[in-house]
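Quality-control log, excerpt.
Job 1 of 2 completed; input and output follow.
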Amino acid sequence: MLSIYLGTDDFTKKQAIKVLAQKAKADLAFVASAEDLDILRLLEQDLFSRPKVFVVEGLFKELNLEKNLEKLFGTQNTIIVAEEKLDKRLAFVKKLTKDKRITIQNFDLPHGRELNVWIEKRVKDLGGKISKAVVEVLAVRLGRDEGTEKKFGGKIVEIKEAFNLWQADSEIQKLLACSSAGEISENDVNNLVSENLEIDGFKITNAIGDGRKQEALDLIGHFLSEQTGSDEKGSIIQLSALLAEQFRNVAMVQDFSARHTPESEILEKTGWKSGRLFVMKKISSKFPSKKVMEFLKKVEALDTELKTTQTPPKVLLDLIVAQLF
């Protein structure tokens, strides 16, 4: 059996593969590098061994189905070709997707409030409880509203989410482990789940724009304390990159506003959702455009110094902060 699993939801994709192998009582093997890809291995059958499920990940071109397709149909093994997407403009891909012998499944990440539904079901599947209000808080923290949409001719042709379900599942399991009687509370979410970096950036930039220095410093300190996977220098480099990205967005929105660019055109060019554009417009109105460009130049210079000199990171952090007020 030959199947093609498409989409960016690698979590659900892997779950489906695991269930399929368990139901078939088959040995499961993943092939994720060209060096490990051996057509003969995919075809081999042993009368006395268990069935086999081979998952070929990200190797569509190397698999050369134009040449090997009929061979793969001749084996009793289950072969799953896992890719994020295929180029549907290619004649062979068009032919492949119409072949009734091939099972094609799409695994797209939940979009918008679909994430809320997924969170609620996942908590229940793991034996926990969570109210719809807390589901909403968790979905926002995970970055539900921070994805981007690519449009062509006014139609959405691609969506890039700011989260993945491996991350969401990890946070849910952590919350359940720390919850009282297996029910996740809003306090649990606020105390244990870090906000999406984009949200951190909005909050810091907004506080700077309002002149709330102490709040901005507190938010920066919180951001640095949450970067547990990085050393001090790495965390400050992340902060520098985050601030630079936010102020580049502010400069871009100010330019759009100066040219009276229609909102629909801005959304199409940036891939943002309308909610994100609303927030960026509000923040950008708080900064003189000259100050934005000056800060961008300085933070980019400091970023270079962070990466190329031995100056203590804390000294460079103080220099970054000094540019903000």
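Job 2 of 2 completed; input and output follow.
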Amino acid sequence: PFTIYVEINPTSGGHPGVIGWASQGDNFISLRLWPGRGNRGGLHLYWKANGQFAELAVQADGVINSGWKSVAASWDKSTIRLYMNGKLLGTKSYSGAFNAVDKSSFCACVGEPGRTHEAFKGNMRNVQVMNKALSDSAVQSLPMAHASSGVKKAGLTPPLVFSHLSKFTCNKCMENAAGAKADLPTTGAFTIYAELNPSSGGHPGVIGWGSQGDNFVSLRLIPWRGNGGLHLYWKANGQFVELAVQADGVISSGWKSVAASWDKSTIKLYMNGKLLGSKAYSGSFNAVDKSGFCACVGEPGRTHEAFNGEMRNVQVMNKALSDAEVKGLPLESGGGGSALQAPLVLKHTDAFTCNKCTLASEGSSAALPTTGPFTMYVEINPTSGGHPGVIGWGSQGDNFISLRLWPGRGNRGGLHLYWKANGQFAELAVQADGVINSGWKSVAASWDKSTIRLYMNGKLLGTKSYSGAFNAVDKSGFCACVGEPGRTHEAFQGQMRQLQIMNKALSDSEVKNLPM
């Protein structure tokens, strides 16, 4: 069985293919658009297996028009299904043959293999192929599932309606365009969450949207409330409601999280996952004008009260999370970095170039595993050799940990994890064919306090029993692209991405399921 899912933005017609693979003429599968189906297009899934032809064609109004939409197709070995924007458009019973063994001809933007003259024209994103037929509800929950105001921004899953993970500097209205396009909660329940690092006071707004003067919502800091406070308020059809609480330290420099929610009966305010106060309210809420959305500004129009400092991981949800759910959001208890869920203690997703110690400040401020256990994971694309370090932290000479590549191990390289703790040395070195060659691959290392393990591309390459000491307390020595602290002359040359450190030794199957 299978599910095919993709988000598309067409620019022209033809019989544009979406996704297909296998052999030309027979034993293939093809998903394509059908401009001539109805007034505004259709979807056509078909395949040929051992000479047997199967197909389902449905009308999908607007599928060929410009603008982002999602299309999906599935087969559970008994029923073929086609969807647009999460809505089931048609089904057909079929329990016959399916044969698409030749993966070498896979194409996105082309359906039936060989029909490149019918290539899709436009943009695609979020292409997914699964070896299972998803249920209707599971397809509806995929990133661009249909919402009342159209399709949601790619990458969001309910109850998220707006998300901006990356750090940005505030001193004016930010993220206006993205917020204005989001399916913001304009009349109902909500949760607002953001991580912030203030640099100065004033009446700094955090997040707000709606119209100026009436029918808006605003979350802001209150510098004069004790040592600082939080203030959530809104006005709906002339009715004013608010909750203000003391939040010691919220206006001080340093990262912390703030959150606000309303479930249509109770307003709540939080800092670092802790509930600070609540207030019963079951009246009106009206913030329909999404064009007034601002991060860094609370009440629409009050740009002179913009927050000063940095923000990251801004999230708006169309549901009031429970206290436990708010506590489980990234910065629970005020520690860690952006978008972390246990057992993650450090995560850097974006690609970066290596030739020196990198991410030192992020690593030194993270809750690194200094006495064990741990898992380290990173995706690498090498450009040259040496004894390139991958990740390391601790002190120079003793009480450190280092993961590095080993060009001289076998014909095409190896992996070397080693540490020194209170003068005691431990290591595991394995052959990892191709690890030093150019091209993206993943490497991982773990220790569960009894066994050291090394992996490449999710495959376990070797293990070694060890239940001795581990001591890497000095986080200030953290480096990506360098292994053993101080050995910057052995810096990795190339690119890295998806760096993750966990305070748990993942199982083999968990490592296998990491990004790559």
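Post-run check on job 2. The radius of gyration is 27 Å.
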